[in-house]
Structures are given as structure tokens and as C-alpha cells.
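In this supplementary section we document a worked example of the pipeline. Step one takes a protein sequence of length 273 as its only input; no multiple sequence alignment statistics are reported here. Step two produces a three-dimensional model, which step three serialises into C-alpha cells for compact storage. The input and output of this example are shown verbatim.
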Amino acid sequence: MSRSFSGKVAVIQFPGVNCEYETARASAFAGAEADIFRWNEDPELLNDALAIILPGGFSYQDRIRAGVVAAKDRIMDKVSELAREGKPVLGICNGAQVLVESGLIPGIHWEKVEFALAPNIMSDREGYYCRWVHLKCETTECAWTRDFLKGEVIPIPIAHAEGRFVTENEEILEKIKENGQIVLRYCDYRGIVDSSFPINPNASVDNIAGICNKQGNVLAMMPHPERATWLRQVPEDLPGQWGRKRRQSAGDVEALEGEGPGMRFFASIVKER
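The serialised model returned by step three reads:
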């Protein structure tokens, strides 16, 4: 029986990623049939996929630097082709690093590397950092944020060592601002964008947590929405409305199995506006 991805979300499994199954389950919870697509399968199978997601983890052990080896993989030629045609593509954490290294993000000059995801810089150290953060949704014109409201605050966990969006080209930074390509910014639970640590957890330029291409169908984000898909995943001590909702649902299994703050990233590609 031939394998088909018609109408499915294809979650790309590179060697070393570790979030592919959680990402597929999150897509399914949001209403999209999803399946794992291994890096060495026939790329033509992706033609009829509903969307493509590059999950988090450590593709090719993050050799050289995070995401760079996977960015050169043959499957990315097909992902690039489909992205040009308007196929929704999401890169989460390591997947975001792959998209940046392949030049799909910011996509101003297609497939030219103009951004980097550099090592985190924190108040007292550098390197790996894991915690819940808050994101401000700056635009709903991106295919992956259509189910949110502009200005909405979204709590989501991060877990990365190289997640600081930077560029040496100030013109590129100004261009992505003009184009409305900054999709997500780190903020506090009230929605105030503050560059201080830990609100901006990695010293990312302009508090950037997620960038899309000019067309809005490709999004690279460092936080992990699949780890915030269900309410039960939200910490009880989280400030803001989602923390209150989680505390109020303590002991209510049905409520805890309900929607979490990250679910709507996946729902955005299956729900009609």
C-alpha cells in the first residue's frame, strides 16, 4: 500500500530531533491529521500535505551549530519549493534554526542566510535555558497565528541554548519590521515588551521570539507550542489568565484535558477564519 500525506500535517523527523511525536499529537488535537515524515523518504510525498512542521530537538546532534546540517539536507530543497508555493511551514526551536540556516526565514532574499540564532545571553551566564515565557502576538496575518488576536499574550515554554535572533544587517531588521514579519515578541504576562532578563530570556534583538517570511506562510519560533497544547501542561503558579484557569481546573480531569495556550498555533492552519 502506497504511503500518502494528502491532507495531513507532515512532521519532519531528522536524526536527533525529539519532539516529533508530541508535535504530531498537538496537531491532531487541533483537528489536523498528522504523521511523521522521515528525512530520507520520497520528498514528492509532501506535495499534497496540508502543512509541514520541523520539530524541536537536536538534528544531527547540532554539529557545527544548531540546525545547519539539517538545513543542507535534500528534503529541505522540497520544503523550500513548497514554501515558495505557499505551503504552511512551521519550525519550532531546532526547526526554527533549520529554517533560518536554510534562508527560508526571513525570506526577504530567498534562501540567503540573513539572520542567525545565536547562543543565549542571560544576566549571569550563557547557554541552555528552560522556563515558561510570555509571547505577544504581533500579527494575525501569519498562517500560524490566524486563530489568535493581535496583541494577545500567550504563555509557552522555551528550552534552547541557541535561540537569540540576531542579524548584522540593520537594513534587514528594519525591513522585517516594515513588512510585519515579526510575529511573536517576548513580553511579561500583561503584554509589556521589556528587553530585561528574564522577560527577554535570551537577549534576542527587539525581543523577537518568532519571525515569518514575507508571504506569511513560513514561521520560525523558538518557544515550544506543543508543550502548551493542553491545559494540564500549564504550571499552576503561572501569572495571568492561563495560570488562573489552570488553578481553577485543579482536580477536574475533563477541564485539564482541554485547550492550552499553544494549541491555536496548530488550529490556525485547519480552522477557517
